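User: I'm curious whether this sequence folds into something compact or stays loose and floppy. Could you predict its structure so I can see for myself?
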Amino acid sequence: MERHEILHYAVRLAASQPGGTLATTHDTTGAPYITYVLAHLCADGRLLFGGGLARQHSKNILASPPVSFLFDSRSAVASDWTAFDRVSIEGDALVVPPGPPDYERLLAQIAAKSPMAAYFTRHGALFSVEPRRLTLSRGLDPNRHIIEFPPPVP
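Assistant: Here's the prediction. I'll summarize afterward.
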C-alpha cells in the first residue's frame, strides 16, 4: 500500500471507533499503564484526545511524553474474525495550550467526532500525539503497512 492509502485506511478505521487504547509509562513506578480514551485521528496522522490533568494517564504523559495508541475493530471478531483491523500509533504526546489558533481548530475536530471527548477536553487538557510511526494491520494480511513520520519541526 502507498503512504496515502495507509493513512486513509487508518483514518477511516479510527473514525469508526469512539476511541482506543492508550499506553503510557506510569509516572512513579515506571510500569506500563494502559487505559481507554475517546480519540480522533486527523488526516495528517496526528492523534487528538482530551483528559483531566489529575487522571493517571495525563500525569504519565506530563512525566514521559512517549506513548503508543491502538485503534482496532475488535467488534468485528464476533461475526467475521478475518475483518479484525488494527492501527497503532507511536509518538510523543504534548499538551496543546488553549489560545493559539491550533487549539480551537483541533478542539472542533474532536467535537465533530465526539461531543463527550470535547467535554473531557474542555474540562481538562487537549493532548496531541505527534506521530513517529503508524502501523496498519489488516485482517489476515501478513504484511504490516508502516508509515514513518519525519521529526516535528520545532
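Summary: The beta strands are 19-25, 32-41, 47-51, 66-72, 86-96, 125-137, 144-148. The domain at 3-148 is CATH 2.30.110.10 (Pnp Oxidase; Chain A).
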